[in-house]
Amino acid sequence: MAMDESVRKAVLAAVPSLRAFAISLCGNVDRADDLVQETLLRALANIDSFQPGTNMSAWLFTILRNHFRSEYRKRRREVEDGEGRYAETLKSQPEQHGQVEFKEFREALSQLPSDQREALVLVGASGFSYEEAANICGCAVGTIKSRVNRARTRLAELMSIDSADEFGPDEQTRAVLAGGER
Amino acid sequence: MNDRKPAGQQNPMESAATRNKKPNTKPAKLTRDVQARLGQQLRAMYDEVVNQGVPDRFTELLNRIDGHGDKDKQ
From A170, which residue of chain B is nearest by alpha-carbon distance? Predict the structure, then answer.
């Protein structure tokens, strides 16, 4: 199959962001890369349904998101708690991307319902407008807005609870250590 | 025996800092400061992956589909 050079460029340009989105959806780099690969194969097999002049990136995100959703539903039927598994996946690879400082954030993110998580990532990190995110997720703009708001509120709660939890034991540990040395 | 207790659990530092920085009074539950920090973390995490660029497997995949895979192999 001969590929139009502009299509090829646009697809490759979207890959880094597709990967980041895929990782945020499934919490696992290897699975995310498989998801991106399957997305590209589907997209290129159906390239005729892409309307030239529209946003290639948004089109690919839509395919990836729909593919993930159908896979996710299948897997959830096999394994009962999808959210729990996502959180477990994250915990088993805490420093996959180096930065320890993201660990807490990653864990908080993993506790969000998946529809809130994807809305937050699309708008807050991928740089899509509310309208584009609504198209990608196949829902109303107002739904995306409320999901993003709920995601932000919940994240803030999770993060502040986490830091309060950390503060107590840490102080106690220091007190114990100091007591032991004297 | 050591009688020291955990201190400072009710430290209002965060809200004070927010008030000093931006006198923006939003009726929302989240302060702008907290929102900004969450947004920064989210983008930093995301950009870390984006900055990895395009892994070879995807360039190779497109080459294969395009039919000039052998030519471009290195």
Answer: B6
Q: Is the dihedral of CA A136, A141, A143, A145 positive or negative?
A: positive
Token pair listed for B73: 């192999």
Q: For residue B29, what are its two tokens?
A: 């539950």
Question: What's the gap between Cα B26 and its chain centre?
Answer: 23
State the CATH number of the domain containing residue A128. Answer: 1.10.10.10
In this prediction the pTM is 0.71
Q: Is residue A87 part of a domain?
A: no
Q: Domain of A32: which CATH number?
A: 1.10.1740.10
Residue A37 with chain B: CB contacts under 8 Å: 57-58, 61
Please give, rounded to a whole number of angstroms, the shortest distance from the CA of A162 to a CA of chain B: 13
Q: Does A161 touch chain B (CB under 8 A)?
A: no
Whether residues A70 and A122 share a domain: the answer is no
Query: Taking a contact as any Cβ pair under 8 Å apart, which residues of chain A between 79 and 118 contact chain B?
Result: 97-99, 101-102, 105-106, 109
Per-residue pLDDT tens digits for B10-69: 444 444 444 444 444 444 456 788 888 899 999 999 999 999 999 999 999 999 887 754
Structure confidence by residue, pLDDT tens digits, A34-90:
999 999 999 999 999 998 888 999 999 999 999 999 887 777 666 544 555 555 555
Q: Does A8 touch chain B (CB under 8 A)?
A: yes
User: Is A44 domain-assigned?
Assistant: yes
Closest CA to A65 of A126, A152, A9: A126
Does A123 share its domain with A180? yes
Specify the range with the lowest mean pLDDT, choosing from A26-40, A147-161, B18-32: B18-32
Same domain, A68 and A120: no
Does A97 fall in a domain? no
